[in-house]
Amino acid sequence: MSEIALTLGPVFFHWPPDRLLDFYRRIADEAPIERVHLGEVVCGKRMPFSDPAWPAIIERLERGGKQVVLSTLAAPATVRERRSVEDLCADDRLVEINDVSGLPSRSGKPFVTGPFLNVYNEASAKFLIQLGAQTICPPVELSFAAIGVMSLKCPEAEFEIFAFGRLPLALSGRCYHARIHGLHKDSCQFTCEKDPDGLSVDTLDDQQFLAVNGVQTLSNQVQAFCPAPAALAAKGVRRLRLSPQTCDMVEVARIYRRLADGKEEPKDARFALSCLDLPGILVDGYAHARPGWQVTATA
Amino acid sequence: MRPLNAEPMLPGFVRHLFPTVAGLPLGPLLTLSLRALAGRRPGLFERLGEYRSACFVIDPVDLAFAFRVVPDGQRSSVRVVSKDEAAQSDVLIKGPLLTLLGLLDGTLDGDAMFFSRIISISGRTEAVLALRNTIEDAELRPADLLGLRGSLARCVDTGVLGALGVARRLAENNPSEARKA
Amino acid sequence: MTMTRMELVCPAGTPATLRAAVQAGADAVYCGFRDETNARNFPGLNFSRDELAEGVRFAHDHGSKVLVAINTFARVDDVDTWKKAADSAAESGADAIIAADFAVLDHVARNHKQIRLHLSVQAAAATPEAIGFYAAQFGIRRVVLPRVLSLQEITALNRAIDVETEAFVFGGLCVMIEGRCYLSSYATGKSPNLNGVCSPPEMVSYDEEPSGTTARLSGFTIDRYERGQPVGYPTLCKGKFKADGKTSHLFEDPVSLNAGGMISGLKAAGVTALKIEGRQRGKGYVSEVVRAFRKAVDAVEKGGDAIDVDRLLAGQSEGARQTAGAYEKKWR
Predict the structure, then answer these.
(1) How far apart are CA C24 and CA C10, in angstroms?
(2) Could you give the ipTM of this predicted complex?
(3) What pTM value is reported for the model?
């Protein structure tokens, strides 16, 4: 049976540099993960805080035998943000493209497409593969079945499915953390730092629904797609993406490693995940072509 | 000033011109004209798609009865039903008769009437939307419903639309009287 | 140097609305097929193949253009449906295809070189690099700008690219970056990218409760209104939510875009075409809005004062408040 690899996605939240250093030190030393995505994806204004931390983190992860992928901004706008995308695309490491803005400078060199890039069908996937896409992580709303069809039709690339974490649902030009605190985006005071898992958004009837993280909107619930390895192999899907939250991500990685190696049943993996300190309940609707908030797994 | 939602109601004397009990030949007459319309303009009903077989109850609040409509082309049916029977439907549309007629001929905008609560809708929202979009595109004139053509059709259109206009003005000028009546 | 006249691009959800828009002074009308290939896939809306051909004839006879939106993302294993829609649009004699998916853009660029390609707002191309990429790969002639750019950003963008830009001036306002928002599918299973619908009507309910009328989408409470007060459509991003102990229209107030006062600013920013949103709106609405913007654009083109569009549209803005959106930087 072919190996199922694990990817740690980029941190969506505004974690201070110390927290990032601690987090990735543990990942480097303890997490059974093959590939780690690094970089600010959500908000260019946070980059001056995290940028100085990355060289040491990259060095540490690579020393720990991890493959480092440099993630780029999902919605670059300013000259500085656009330049950062271009600079990262010039790197010899693998780069994650999250906006078409990165394609001109990366075409011809290998890249990963992240869930912010709209790859919905095999024809679009082939178009990107011919430009250099090696790994494709399609938008979160696409079902496992649909990703499987793409994967079987495009064996030349590796397909990755967003398996764990709050789901990235939307991006805006407007910052909701700033708006909630009565501030303007341009002088936001980085209030998003107070919510390292995002700020919960409930309905008027107190239903848990969404979460905001600066300009990003996520699900309140936590995606926990736990497929049997045979099901992944049958569809040719060879990677699972785990998206960082403040819970014990090393433990999350261990659970998924056991699942992917066939050492733990899906329902046991879900139970183990549900015991962690998570910001929301576990859901898996999207993977099963249902509304994303729904729970289809029985455990 | 008119209070919010005081949409023109039919003046009392006009309402008395309508039959006040269910079961008069209005239903068969409207069924025939709807089927005739389907014969002349089949494309119109295609726009409804799967909602052709849906059951729409149109309940003019200023009349004593309601209409139960299944707009299924040549198999269309219109029945005059009592207000009690009106509950059994896929969609229930309630509003003043003049407003409902205004929606039918495109004089009034359905969205505006709904969001300001002059008409109320319950049931399958998607079926209402399909009906509303179909009526929008149909550009129906009174003569279309009666199956008339040529100069007679123009005469009827002018007459009926003119009369509706007069009725609306009458009602607008005296909404309180109309409400009481 | 005299710049070319700005083009007024107007919505048409049905053939009757297309005729109404043309007669009200639209330079171009955009519409889509009655299926999932376009981003306004609502029941009873849109065009059959024959209706499109007839619409194109009518528009051309009256000196207007027709742009066909095939701007959702093709479904896996069903890309041919989208390709065939593009083929039909080309055969109808339409003037342009508006698309977002690489697969659709690539198909049109390879097989229908005679028809113009416009990049849909669903592609969310907002930088010179992104727009330049689409131009180099597919030969797009125009980009419909995301509704999150300010006037200054549009000005700078137009200096850096050599394709035309089209900017929204009126109608429903997306707060999220279009084409990259999955809120609707998260709640309902249907989304703009996959199904051409946002907050689909079959998932909407209005429930009369002691506390008022509650508008729900797929069971999630989106807003609540006092009895007898005007209600709104429960579009997810316009709802009222609780966060950080506060209840508010967190994402966006229930407002609609009106950039009528920005027409001369958009012209100075180098924008080629002004777009009115609302393929789901009736012909009465479309006629009135198009007529008002026709007057305003003509006034600006003659170098005169901008006509007071707000006053011309007083009837349409009743109830719903309006905003100039992201064109003013304070929106953020």
Answers:
(1) 10
(2) 0.97
(3) 0.91
